[in-house]
């Protein structure tokens, strides 16, 4: 490992350790101790400290001017409520929600319009005293300023980048300086009109967004959830008499743009707009062709997915959502397969960047040539062309009806001559 990587790793471990200490401490002295530890390391402090409205900062820059004379100057500015500053040389610049290090990088770029290789240093002269720690399943962990007696927990999370896809937004915790904890259900806040703990944040609150456990990730989808385009379903079907002794295998299906799934046994089944409970009843009704007393279980394992466009000689052209790592050949099989007129050797995928991949399904099936069986990406367009036939085949098809008529006439004439000579 080179020295640069070693320094980066050490810095990351230092920040991680400090955040852990913040999470384990419940009293104000612990919080202050960590802040002091961060401030004692200039580089870590600059990476970790987020600028915000009300902060007073000194901007110092050093370089050689256009006349070859040294230029060293500093400005004392206050970040406005909209997150901007006004600099006498640069004009209006937004620094809101940037770390000190990021702000220095931004100003270095802007100063480069006037200097050859400027060096910029930002010193926080007066940091707003009301700060909140944000940690967990969020795009950016940090200590963020808040507006006293105004900023609510929902507003705070949304304004600072929201949460990651793995977050359990129904169990966001706010740990307060007095040792109490408030649980905020952001999911209920967003999707219902029910009262929730959308509390006003206080100085030194610690907001922790937990990761959703895999078994709980979609437990919020009760049987009253309405199925819709893009849902990824796991469906199991079993005989009632075997449900206890021999659990059925589950299979994954995707609800397409028309609201259908394509089941390998039943074909097209429309499920969009139904509750999970209703969809289970519909599948059970269809399954009675093959089962005596079918028991159906449907689970929603993904709410939405990436999209792939399918055109040409396929049984069900359209827009299909995909989930996870899906290869081209498997994808074409799960959406209903190709028509008899499809050209297996010239299946084409065009990508968002304009590149093209040509897939030979014939070689894939019979010669195990898997190299071009690519993983599909969001926005891919899959074109299955019509099989091109040779000119002689085309001429033969056109000539064949005429030849058939001539053969029939010749046969009748021959039979007439034979009968007359008898």
Topology of helices and strands:
Blueprint: H1 3-24, H2 28-40, H3 42-48, E1 56-64, E2 70-78, E3 84-87, E4 91-94, H4 100-111, E5 119-126, E6 131-136, E7 142-145, H5 153-159, E8 172-175, E9 181-184, H6 186-191, E10 206-209, E11 232-239, E12 250-254, E13 260-263, E14 267-270, H7 276-287, E15 294-302, E16 306-312, E17 318-322, H8 328-334, E18 347-350, E19 356-359, H9 361-367, E20 381-384, H10 391-421
Parallel strand pairs: 6-10, 16-20
Antiparallel strand pairs: 1-2, 1-5, 3-4, 6-7, 8-9, 8-10, 11-12, 11-15, 13-14, 16-17, 18-19, 18-20
Roughly what is the average pLDDT, rounded to an integer?
78
Strand content: 25-35%
The run of helices and strands is HHHEEEEHEEEHEEHEEEEEHEEEHEEHEH
CATH top level of the domain at 131-209?
Alpha Beta
Question: Largest sheet, described in full?
Answer: 5 strands, mixed
| Percent of residues in helices | 25-40%
Which secondary-structure class do the elements indicate?
Answer: alpha+beta
Order of strands, widest sheet: 7-6-10-8-9
**Count of individual beta strands:** 20
CATH architecture of the domain at 131-209: Roll
Q: First CA to last CA: what distance?
A: 105 Å
Q: From the 3D structure, determine the CATH topology of the domain at 131-209.
A: Outer membrane lipoprotein wza fold like
Give the assembly state of these chains: single chain
Determine the CATH superfamily of the domain at 131-209: Outer membrane lipoprotein wza domain like
Low-confidence region ranges: 1-35, 217-221
Radius of gyration: 34 Å
- SS field, number of helical segments: 10
Shape: elongated
